[in-house]
Model the fold of this input.
Amino acid sequence: MAAATDDAGDSNEMIRVVSSDGEHFEMPEAAANLSLVLRHMIEDDCADAAGIPLAVVAAKPLAKIVDYCTKHAAKSSGLTIEEAEELKRFDAEFIEVDTDMLYDLLVAADFMGVEGLSKLAVQRTADLIKGKTPEQNRETFGIVNDFTPEEEEEICKENEWAFQITKPPSRLC
Amino acid sequence: MSEATGCHTPPATAEIAPDDLLAEILLRLPPHPSFLSRASLVCKRWRRLIRDPGFLRRLRAFHRTPPVLGFFNNSPGLPRFFPTEGIPGRIAAEASSLRRDGDDGMWWFVDCRHGRALLRSRDWAELLGWDPMTGERRCITVPNQMQAGASDRNAAVFCTASGVDEDCHSSPFHVVVVFTSRGRVFACGYSSRIGAWGVLMSTTASSPCELYDEPPALVGEALYWLVNGSRILEFQFGSQVLTLIKWPMGMNAIRKWSIRLVRLEDDVLGLAFVKDFNLHLWAREVTDDGASKWIQRRAIELDKLLPLPTAMDGNWCRLMPVWICGFAEDQNVVLTRTIAGVFLVSLQTLQFKKVSCSLLMKTVYPYASFYVPKGGGDADDGANCGIERL
Done:
């Protein structure tokens, strides 16, 4: 009958992580558990005072990921509608980053197995792509157009087959 | 602690497959094919990922239901495509170029389902199975016995590809033709896989039968057409059973153009009809003893939902009845003709969109599809139908 206020297995222990460029960060164990990789290492008893080395995550994205996990772990279950809304707002502001950071977060969240952040970064990237022409997408994401002019012409024709650009059907009326 | 065995440094970036990540991103583009179509123009890598059959399978699984891209209509002079989003693309041009040799040169839409359209010649001597996304066309000759002496006809197209694992565009399709003749109702199925018609089934009608023009509902393994005299023709194509069943009493007064057989979300046969500007949905539910009864499920006040013009002295919209002109069963979307034009209404969210100003669309054929790369279909040459491949 005791009130189960804390999530089972939660502890107040702080987990240390080290970025690829040698910066140290700390976060509550519940936050670290949101990363599949960190959780496995904690379970394997590999979290020590020296910190878990994350060889491919630089300090800048890691700082963001620690923020994300700390915020989400603090509000993990039994959310009120207001809290859920607040978390949504946090996510929306959190992911308003430039494309370099977005790319770092995409790769780092995927690598660390932070599912919520991974989905957030993936959706944000898709949202950036969807409103752009192929040329704008190349510029945004630093992609080189590797089609030959002949291929491009052929593909444009094929593209025309189905649909061109989405606009409201105002021309119909 | 760090000396403990089994501790390791997490794997390096080289082990992350960026293709997987990019595929995850591309999956989350809106389901309208134009988004993937445009993304495939960015570079070879994006194009390769988007055209990959595994990716396309995941796309279908992720979005589940293909979006309604528009609808076809038998406009006087030529069949037309009206996109619900976007400017008319090649599908519109292709639809208006569907010409055949002989009589009036017209193909008439009869049904559209699972990414396939079915058209007929005026005399029903020939049918055309057309995949608007791949451009594949197959001409089907209708056996003489289905032409001579038949008074009313209707037909259905569908494919039996199972969900996300198979793509209807690359799968065989089936056609069922139903017709009435001398007090009997007939049905016969055609399979594109074997390119042949099956056995002709028939049943006796107690009173003269008149098949309505509207396309049928597909529920489970059965097709349902409206028949005059408050009757429904049921053809179970799996077990090849053809029967006439009754629709609810008291609906005889509903105008023919305001009533449709539909498949409801829980995969039961439904009747959608408009009465007093309310869209009613009834379901045919099977009771414990195996009998079936019709139960009212919903009523939607269309005159309150849709932006219909009103006059000082009352509702203008009441001057013109609302027609149900189309229904997309997988998307649960109804197309209604009102005094203000044609609206597409989602029965799930009640969101609506005006898709045409026309007041004359009696029957339209909604078309839904995911992205399909060009070159995905095996096209027939269609030579014996007088069709030119573009």
